[in-house]
Amino acid sequence: MTTLPVPRGPRSRGPGKAPSASAGTAIHDSRLDWRRIAYNGLVSRSIDDIEEATNKNKSGTARENLILYQFSARGHEVAEVILGALIDHRHDAASAYYRSRPLLLSLGLSIEDAFASPLGRAGGFSDGRDIGVVCNLPNREGPIVLPMSGDVGSQYTPCAGWAQSIRYRTEVLGDESWNGAMGVVLGGEASVATNGFWSALTIATTLSLPMLFYIEDNGLGISVPGELQTPGGDIATNLAAFGNLLVRDGDGTDPAETARLLVECVDHVRAANGPALVRLTVPRLCSHSGPDNQRGYRSDAEIASDAQRDPLPRLRAHLVPAVLSEKEWSALEAEVARDVQAGLAAARARSNPDPSTVARWVYADDSPDSPEAYGGLSRVERTALGGSTSAAPTKDVVRFAEAVRRTLRHELEVNPKVVVFGEDVGRKGGVHLVTEGLQKNFGAGRVFDTSLSEEGIVGRAVGMAISGLMPVAEIQFRKYADPAAEQLNNCGTLRWRTANRFAAPIVVRMPGGFGKDVGDPWHSLSDEVRFAHAYGWQVAIPSNAADAVGLLRSAMRGPNPTIFFEHRSLLMTSDGSTRYPGDDYLVPFGSAAIVRQGNDITVVSWGALLHRCADAAEQFEGRVDLIDLRTIAPWDRATVLASVKKTGRCLIAHEDNLTAGFGAEIAATVAKEAFWHLDAPVDRIAVEDVPMPYHPVLLDAVLPSTESIAARIDALLSV
Ligand SMILES: Cc1ncc(C[n+]2csc(CCOP(=O)(O)OP(=O)(O)O)c2C)c(N)n1
Question: pTM of whole model > 0.90?
């Protein structure tokens, strides 16, 4: 077996073209089964041939509209299947994109599934929910492919999370079976311009993670040339000076060179030398996707010239006769043709997905017929953690921040899979000091600072959750979740779009709302409705320390991703203080608290405004039913409706914008479901569609106050 010398040490060796193999020489490495590699490459090409031919006639109009959205890997396949042969560790994960089907075939995607999913058929990796090539591959016994996303660049940071989990398993949990595993991320050359690429590169290089960046450079991002994505169009050259990164660059149509570079990079990463990046040039021997006809950006001469670089004839020349005889190659082609036809027939025979199940698995479903998804704590682990919905209050009164800290501390103690991280979370203990002391107690492996990239924080959390950890990420202020929007959205849809094959239950803590007497447009945003509108998220907005404990614990022992709001004005003030409810306390999501009882009006609120509502309600002894919603996704419709049916009046008070704030959702529900019980119009009081201002007099002018809330209650009672 011949393997090439593996460079050691943390510094970059810079890009370099590896010497070309002499023609016809196959690299000898026991991992490289060249017959298998050729089989997978030919299968991929054959699937593309069939899809393209059945989808279009020569004039480009749909003939047999089988594939709703076709993506071909034509030209990329040989390099990808060589890579696939090297992804062979039980705990490897690949994070891929829409041109990665050859890689998936080499990791175990069946030909039937490869056809059935683009056809939108039942079963398979999304049960007809997602574009066929945007897929995934769970596998409890071997390498997996993380759920892909449609957003270019979003594949990078979850892979960094997986790579960090490998480190966590080996170094913190002492699980040697993870030694030598790696995360591999695939992307086109245009994807190197995205935030996700740079965020993941920063994470992997600063932490020296076992991660391979595999860039397949076909020179075009749909129609845009690579020179507009990175100067000179060559990311490998541009990363020459990047610290702690092995960079390699070569021709992805040359099997020997590709194999040698990939073996070198993979061995480097597996030997814990840090990350590597390989750029392989490949031709795109197809349009970008089914609907693209390449007109306007690619001449016939360019297309013809690229056709000369087809890697499949080069693979054949590389293997025949050195590895396979002419006869064996012909037999291989015949085998591929047979298998592909059989896979196509089986895929066509599958039924369409069942529309009655389309709403299933937006959230976890623990019913016995719902299989366990890949990712998050297992049911057994969650059951073992237990918990109780009855509080066991201790004598000590705690502030909100202390309540969250104690809960995190306890969960870190009882669950070795919990990790807590974010900007300044480690040494400083967070800018709000909520995580103060935790790093000292649990070490920097479990409680750590991150680079300043919210996309990196959330994307990493997703990768860690898929690997089975329980990540609790802190976003410093609600507004700064904006750069993570893509990862947050994709995390929320992950279970649904993989038809419950994968899940990424993470907790994202974020302080928001006005501070004690201060505000501004950056640190005081609430905008919680955005997360209630997103799919798949639980959203908690506790108004006090005891609820914070119970809801945070429920989130950390639960199967769904959770946004956990920590209201700035409650963190350190007596408003949010309560007795500590105990280390086992759980508050279920979607269960409101009736804070005070009355007969004439229902007031619904959450977070900090709840306290202003309580003060206002005092002026109307026995008349106000005050409901603390506690969570807005899911929200407790039953409690609100039962109350309104009793009182006949409803006021909703929140800090978020009036227009399309969550109050609008509640008002619409009450108007419909309790219409015949209403004695007055359903009313809302909220910030009137202006950003949070800085000066206290301006802040007071926009925020609902105890007085303005009381005035609204009074007005409604007078109707
Ligand atoms: C965030 C985002 N922006 C835009 C798009 C639309 N889009 C899809 S593919 C693509 C080009 C990607 O090119 P590259 O990364 O080089 O991969 P290739 O298709 O060449 O393999 C664009 C702009 C998208 N999917 N996601």
Answer: yes
